[in-house]
Predict the structure of Large ribosomal subunit protein bL21m.
Amino acid sequence: MSRSLRTLFELRAASTPRPAAAFTLPIRPLSTTTPTKSATATTPVISAESHQPKAAAATAAAAGAETQALYPRIPQQVSPPTSETRASLAQLLPLLRAQPAHYLTAHIWGRPYLVTAGDQIRLPFKMPGVVPGDVLRLDRASTLGSRDFTLQGKPYIDERLFECRATVLGTETEPLRVKVKTKRRQRRAKQVKSKHHFTMLRISEVNIHGPEAVGL
């Protein structure tokens, strides 16, 4: 009797399916009916040559926008000259133009510089957006003169009366400076390093226009 019960229990245990473990995943066969892409439906290939002009145009547009953002064109607000000023310009400006060795006080980023043709300017900052060889027009001047005559602006001279151009020579750096900062009753010492950059300009030309430039 006991042997038959044991055999019956073993048969039931063998026939009863065991529950799958919690950490096992069901194995699913890969379906062979998955649609595949046709050989004719290929991704269009775009050559790099077709994109090169657009990329160059985009780069040039970005550079122009950056330059315009750095140095926006701000027109001068010139008040109409009086009758005495017009008469003085019409009479004395040709004499000022006839004398050589003209000079002017150019304003670059709000700083005045007394220059003449051939002078070099060392700006106390690094001018962004320029490279060596660029030609800049300085259109802000408060004084324009020669040996015997001087034209004074209020505050600036009309940019139509003169033309001053400067060539960018490059940038310079000073030697590295180290300053030791200490505080009273403290043993710690802090080192502050500084290395300033400068922009070099050379005044290439200074020309004075006649009274006809302003309609006199």
